[in-house]
Each structure stands twice: as C-alpha cells, then as structure tokens.
Fold each of these.
Amino acid sequence: MAENIRFHFDVDGENFTSAGEASVAVKKKLRQLGFPPDVIRKVSIAMYEGEINMVIHADGGTADVEVTDDEIVIILADHGPGIPNVEMAMQEGFSTARDNIRALGFGAGMGLPNMKKYTDEMNIDTEVGVGTTITMKVYL
Amino acid sequence: MKIGEIKELLNAELLCGEEYLDHDVFAACCSDMMSDVLAFVKDQGVLLTGLLNSQVIRTANMMDMVCIVIVRNKVPTEEMIELASDTGLVLMRSPLRAYEASGVLYYAGLGRREEDG
C-alpha cells in the first residue's frame, strides 16, 4: 500500500441512538477495501464497544482508524472522567454504568475486556479528570 | 434452517428483509444484553431479543448476524426498521416470549448440538 488509509470521526456524546455509527462506517469501508471477514469483525466490534463506552462514560470523543501494510490501528480519545482503576475496569463484569444504561443493553462490564479480546494489542492511557485514550491494534 | 422457516415457526410478522428469507442460518442466540452478544456470540445468524433500540441492529451488524426476531410482539421503532433495512438484515416480530421462541427454534434443530439428539 503506497499510503496509509486514515478515517476520522467525532463521536457525539449526547446521542445514544447514533452511537456506533463510526464503527458501522469503518466496517463498510474495510469491506470495500477487501479485508478478510474476521479482521473486519475484530476491528468493528472493538471499535463499537469503545464508541459505546465514550458515549456512556465520557460525553463523546474522537475515533481515528489507520490502515497500514501490516496492521489496523484504532485510537479512541475522550476528555471524560478517566478510569481510576484500570485493572478493575478490565475485569469481566465490572461496570460503573448506571441502570439506565443497562436498560439499553449495555453496561454489563464486558466493554473493555471485549476490546482486549478482539484486538492483538491494546493500550489504555488514562488520567482521572483529564480523559482516556485507548489505542488498539489488529494485525493483518 | 431457512430464515423463512423461522418466520413460520415463530408465527412472526416480517418487518423488512423479505429478499433474504431464502438464506440459511445455523445457530441463534437470545439476549437483551448487547454486551453479552458482542462477547460470546460466534457465527450465530439469528438474534432473538426483547430489547428495542437502534443498538440491537448495530450489534447484529457487528456480529455479521442476518436476522433479528423481536419477541412478545413488541413494536420496533421506525428507525430500527430503517437501519435494519439499510444494513440488509431481516427484522421480524413474534408473539412468542423469548423462552418459547428459543425453545421452538432449538426443538426444530436450529443450533442444536448433536449430542442432544
């Protein structure tokens, strides 16, 4: 590939209904680019969970996807409350989501573990009161 | 099992995706928790749920599912129907409860493990 392909999205934190639109768009683009279904699925699920998290916890943020010759990099950045205890947040079933979020089908404490499960690398850079940047990589 | 058979078995009303009724599916899952669907589902073509919001359609899309059955005759929003239609998903609603609908499909062989006979 001559030049890396990049996508940028602003994730609207106000609107739960539109959450996931960026992931749907990325999925569509990766499909058009002819990537294998398992790669597309990994990228889109990890990004979707991250997008939902940004809407639930952080009042939105930005999502950037870069496709290089050997990996797809997803960077999700927000200016939300930050994650006080990353180790705890990575445990399956741990959630700080409110009941109204659970009623919408999320907040089961599977978001971050799922993102890790579906990607080859995941790094969480977070500071309480400042925000969180999650970088995920799926190898090609 | 053809999606059309699922429609018949569950006495369901088709809301969109008529052109896909001939598609084959091999397994299903039933959940109102989309996080769990994203965590545990693998190659399951059908989602049965009582949850009504646009994230149901997006979750199914992410998981490459092809058919969503809304149980207990709940009425999905116009937005859900539109999203499902745009995504190329079959959306239907059944009068059966989630437990019954799952049981009917399982008994009919959808996703049934061989050792269960």
Note: Chain B touches chain A through 20 residues (CB under 8 Å).
Amino acid sequence: MAQWKPLEKMRYVAHDVPRTDGPAKVTGAAKYTADIVLPGMLYGMILRSPHAHAYVKNIDLSGAEKHPAVKAVLDMNKYTVRYYGDEVAAVAATSPELAEEALDLIKVQYELLPFVVTEEAAMAPGAPRIAEEGNVSWERAGDKAKVEQILAGSSHVVEADIRCQVQVHACLESHGAVAQWEGDKLKIWISTQGVHGCREDFATYFEIDQDKVEVICDYMGGGFGSKFPVGVEGQVAARLAKIAGLPVKLMLSRKEECLAVGNRPSANMKLKMGGDSQGKITALWQESNGTGGISGNAGFPMPYIFAVPEGAYYKKHAHVRINAGTERPFRAPGHPMSAFGTDIIVDMLAEKAGIDPLRFRLLNDPDQSRQKQYKIGAERIGWETRWNKVPGSGSTGKKRGVGIGAGRWGGGGARSTKVQVEIFPEGKVVVSTGTQDLGTGIRTLVHQVAADILGIPMSYVTPQIGRTIYPFSTGSGGSITTGSVTPAVNNACNTALTRLFEKVAPALGVDAGDLACEDGVIYAIADRSKSLKWKEATALLQGEVLNITDGWVEGLSSSGVAGCQFAEVEVDTETGRIKPLKYVAVQDFGLAVNTLTSRSQINGAIVMGISWCLSEDRTMDPKTGTMVNPNLESYKLSGPMEIPEIEVIIDHMPERGVIGLGEPPQVPVAGALANAVYNATGVRITRMPMTADVVLQALAKKGGA
Amino acid sequence: MSESGKNNSHPGKGLNRRSFLKGMGTGIVGSATLSQGLLSAAPQGPTPSSKSQDITSATVTMTINGKRQSLEVEPRESLAHVLRERLQLTGTKIVCDRGECGACTVILNGRTVYSCMMLALEAEGARITTIEGLAVGEKLHPIQEAFVKHDALMCGYCTPGFELALKGLLDQNPNPNLQEIKRGLSGNICRCGTYPHIFNAALELAGGKGGK
C-alpha cells in the first residue's frame, strides 16, 4: 500500500499555506458562473407558482412570446404545482429587467388544492393527501414495550422534546448556469459541486453523448450539499439557449434560492434515556418526525455517539411530506440533528445521575479519539472553573455557562479519481483533475501535494481543476474530496517522477530507482554529488512533454473522524439574548494537508452551527402556504457581531492518511451551545432557533414554576 | 417542457398533459389567475409599471477606479448590475439584491455603499472604487495581502464586499479594536463563516497599516 512521504520531507503538506487562488479571489479576478458575460447573452428567468398546491389549468404564453425582447419561452408542462415556488414556465430576454417584465405577461390559470406546510398539519387526522404516496413514510426500529420495560427498571430516566427547524443552504452564489451551444455541443458554466456529474446529467437530459458536453466551474460561491444535480435551473438555462440560439445566463434570485433548491430537513423528537446507578446508559426511546418538504425525506442516525445496549433502542420516525421545496443534502446530513438531541438528553441524564457531564461522557463514549479529545477540550475551555456545578448559579443579569457537544463523520475516497501530470521541458508542471473547489481549498491542496511529492517549489506547479476537460473526479460531497483527490495527485506525481527519473538517469550515470528529488534538485541517493537542478533535468526531455495520467491508490486516506466542542455562552436574562463567547473545537481528520485552510473550515462550521441554533428559521405561513422570509433580512444568518472567539485544536493523526473535514465540525456545535445555555441559566431550551423570545419565555416559565 | 422561440420551431418534448386534463375539473377548490410573477409580487420588489417600449435609456458618467466613463443605461438598472454586466467589473457581487448582505459594496465618493440599492443614474458624476481598483497592477493592496495571508476567504463570494467595507472602516478609523472591526463589518455576511480570519486580517492592518 502506498504511503505518504515522511512529514519532515514535505515543505507544504501539514503546513499553513495560503490559498493558491487567494489573489484571484481578493482582486475580483476570479470568475464565478454568475460573472460570465458572453456576447449576445440573454438572461433567463423562471416563472414560479404563487400557490402551495394547485392544478395548472391553463397557461397562456402568448404575451411573453410577443414581447420584442424575448427570444425563448418554455412551458414546464406541469399539471400540478406542489409548493410555493414550483417551476411553471421560463423565458430568456435581452436583460433581466425585460425577462421579469415578460414573466408578468404569462397568464396562468390555477385550480387551487388543499395544502399542508407544517409537520403537524400533514400528520393530522383528515389531513389532505398531498402526494400519491401519502403524507407520511414510517421508519421503525426496536421493540417499544421492551425498551419501556428497561426504562422502568433504570435508576434514572430523563425525557426531552427536541426541535430542529428547517435550515436553507443560503449559498451566496445562487444556483444557476450560463449555457452556450456550438452546433450540437453544449458548453455550460454552472455553480456545482460536481462538474463530471453535471456532464452526465446534461448528456442524459439532452440525449447526447457526454463528449458533446463541456462543464466549467472554475470558482463557485458555496454549495454546502445543495449543488449536485444540474437542477431545473440548469436544464432550463441549457434549454432556453438551445431554443434561442444564443447563450443564456440563468442565476436564481435570493428568493428562489430560499424556496426551490434545497434545505436541511426539520427534526422533532421526543427522546427518553435511561441510566443505571453507575451512570451507564441503559436505553434510548425515540418517537420523532421531520420534513424534507415535498419529498419527505428527513432522516437522522440514532443512537448517536454513545453506546446503547443491544436491544435497548426503540425508534418510530415519520418522514413527513409538506408543500414546500424539497430537501437536499446539507453539510453532514442528519448528523447535526442527531447530535443536538443526543447531546441534550445525555446532559440531562448526567445531571439526573449526579455526574459531571464531562465525566459522564468519558464513561459512556466508546470512541478512543474522543476520550482523548474531551480532556483536551475541557482543559482549554477551563471546565473545572467555568462549569457551574449548580446550573444558573452564576452571577445575576448576564449569566455564563459552558457545555459540550460531540460528533463523528465518515469521509473516505473515490477510487475512480484520476489526475493528469504534465512536465514541460522548461520545468513547469501542470496538474489537472476535474474536481471543484467549493471554497474548501482543494485547488490549494492539489498544488501543495504535487509540489511536495515531486520535491519542487509550489511556484513550479500550476493546478487546474473545475472542468470536465480534465480527468474524472467525483462530486464534492460526504467530505470525500480530499480523500479522493490528494491520493490520486500523490500517485500520479510519483508515477510522473519515476518517468522523469528514467529520462535523466543516464545523464547522471545511475539507475532511475536510485534517484530522489528534494527542494528542486534531483540527486542520487547514494551520492549527492550526482545531481541536476529540476530545470536542468526537465530540459533533458528535449521538447517532449512528459504526460501521464494515474489514479487513486489505497493507503493514503482513510475514513471515520471524531470531534468534540466546548462552548461558553453568556445569556442576558433581561433581553433573552444568547451570546456565544468562546468555542473550543478538537477535531481529528487524519493528516491535515493545510492547517490554515483547515482552521477556516472548522471556524466556518462553528459559525454555521451557531447561526442554525440561534437565528435561522425557514418560516412557513400555514394560512397561505408560502415562505414568509425568503431573503437575508428576516432569514437571519450570523454576522460579524455574533462571532465568538474560536480556538481550533487539530487532533493531528498523519499516520491515518488524509480524511475530509468539510462536514464533521458542523455536527457538535448546536448541542454544545444548548448545554452551555442550560449551564448558564438552569433553564433547558431544547428548541431551535433559540431566539430572544424563546429564551425569555423559558426563563419566565421557570421563574413562575 | 414545451417551448417556443423566435429562432426555431422545435416541437414540445413529451406529452402536454394540460390540454388533456383541461375541463376534467377534478378536485376543484378554487381557481386563480396569476397576473404577476413571484418576483414582482413581493410587496418590496420592483413593480415595473412602464413597459420596455416606453423606456428610454439615459447617459451616466462616472469615474470608476480612476477612469472616467460614460455609458447608456436604462433608468431602472442598478449600479451593481451596470458594474457587473455592462462593465464586467464582476468582483462586485449581487447576493441578496436588497441591501442585506454587503456583497455589492463599493466605495462611492469616499463612502461605502450597497451598489444593489442604487440606480446607476444616481451615480452620475460619482467617483467609484470597486474591488478591481484596489490593487496597483500586480501589487496587491495591503488589505488584499492580509486577506490572503490570514485565509480571510473561503468560497470568496463575499470577499470583495468585506475588503471594501474594511477599507471604508480603516479610512475613517485607522486603528480599530476587535469590537470596532466587528461593528464596522456588520453590514456584510459570509456564509462560509470566515469571520475569525477576516478579523485577524483586520487586526493586523489596524495601526495604520491598512493603506489607502
């Protein structure tokens, strides 16, 4: 099995390395899909249903068709619209303003149908059936009676009603594409997490060969799981361009972004957990539901993190369909909900059993990495002095407390990943692979790894990604990009180096196998005086470009990571405002290829988790079936004022190889925060978002009790 | 989808079920006619009362990144749109399109403004600095250098707006503390959550190192 070079031989891997594309991004030179402007380009726009559920009785496109600025009109041929924002028709016109004007001229006659936009309404007896499959799909595990019997025999039992609300991805660059046909060939810029997946999607959709489709995503403004499929918007852009015979840009508006391109499902759970007199967990009981919009899919893995004895877990979960945009994967799908519920119920059980929650975790968490991490994190947050033994016993007014959360994730790598390495006679190296950089930094990682494996400065290497003209690489989801791409870069560079050594060995009078390259010098391992500078060596290629493509190999990556986080918060009991003061994140992800961009990832995951826990909430109006806050004003993302101090501790395990980091640190954030709020106030808040009104009500309820 | 276009006459793809279902009248609860698209139905949204044939373009003259430019714009076009789509100064991003996120921040006559909230015509005679005007040739502005060094960006979509907001702050207060930095940048949003590294970059520049 392949192995990484020893760390001490690497100049860039496992170091702080600023992003390769940093200068392009800070100067505005980086061209995202939304930035593409082509000659004669039209602007596409989609007409969407203003109703949550309706038959489309009639659609009259003639007004739009007659508009002088309109070059293409599409009817989506929908018989039924199933949520507010469902696609009905589309136009392409010479400016966005004119496209919008043309949408106004399309007359649609709807026949309204009953709708449901909340889990409760969808599950209520006599609720209107909104999907052929019914409103609810059940998922069950375990024996309820048996688990209740175990609970009845347990020394301690706690129960909680937990609510995690729907969260929208809110990528700053919206979903969309710029499509251009050249004869029967489609060239398309699309904001995507998978250029090669999009190529296949478009080829299938237009019934053309994949080699007729070129997909480009040089830069993209965030995806978080929502940008895998080409989506209706991608199809429509390409379709409008084909009809009009001109390029079409179709980028969704902020409002459309909130309605139609994915979200994190809700999770509403009633949990019961039992513990024995020694503080060991005896059983877990779960009745829950969640909605993923019109598709219903809303699962989360349980039991989570902690060992529950065999046969002592019962689950009855409802995947609920409502008339709202469907879910899409969202950063660690399911896990943040699992962790939020688990971290809270475990904290409650620890208290009931009279055990410090830190010690309770050490007692019940079977993961050896986290055993170590809890101790590191506790020391860094100052658990011994900051944890209130009596919750809420701190100072009056603004109260402080600390809490713990934990998470896990898989990762891994895709064997299908390929990388091309070209070594030019003048010494330049171009490393190409069809992955894409969501903002995670993979372009920089390709650059670092190539330079270190070849043993040359990064300045000699140009990484190329984001296009289907480069070798196949998988979609960026499940935190597998680093585990897929960097082993393939490593292997391809090793292969290329071996080939170069074969070319230059005769000039040095040694065997190719006896050569190595370090700091831009190729030398005989046994006799360092026999050496060539990199550019002297590549000059021996004599006009030939050394060009090899190789793939992923085993041994350089693994999967399965552990992490925990400690939060310190301040709760203003007068205003109800929760202010996170500090986070300590301890996270394992194997070999940290870039410690600087890794810290960015962990910071960002914590910010996103805080934002979900404290302020984000997709709010549906049960009377009209519409989303009432499809914007960035009343759908509130955390901003600069809400950011705590964040201390990142990389639990570095280079011997494990590389493992992706995008998702895992998102998992423990909200649970740690909820437990810290309890520790500060003595009031248990189990519903997100924990806005000031929720906090004040909870405080008042406790005060009155 | 079925389609119609000026340049071809492709037949619709697939069966149009609507004509078949017309008149079946099953499950009628009510009916409504959509007179406006969703976008213009929003109470705060633009409601174009004038149709394209009534709109005359107008000339606007602005000094952008030191270069005086005159161009024809439609009166309803925003400054952000004109910068991006007409002048291809696409470092200025449009994210929320209603003054909530700061991605479209530019410096106009010395003040930071949301360019999505201004009509291009309102910028008549203005001096505008966009992100493309910060670096001098290949030489990055100190703010840009600090952003790269501290990894104060991830996807990079909010980055130009944050850099210009920080420039606006440092121009007024060359030595801000962390709290002042947070407040000064609070008109901007980053979904990747890069804030801590943006603060690090800003703190390094505090003390007059933020350049001009």
Note: Chain A has three domains: 7-30+413-551, 33-113+175-251, 331-411+558-704.
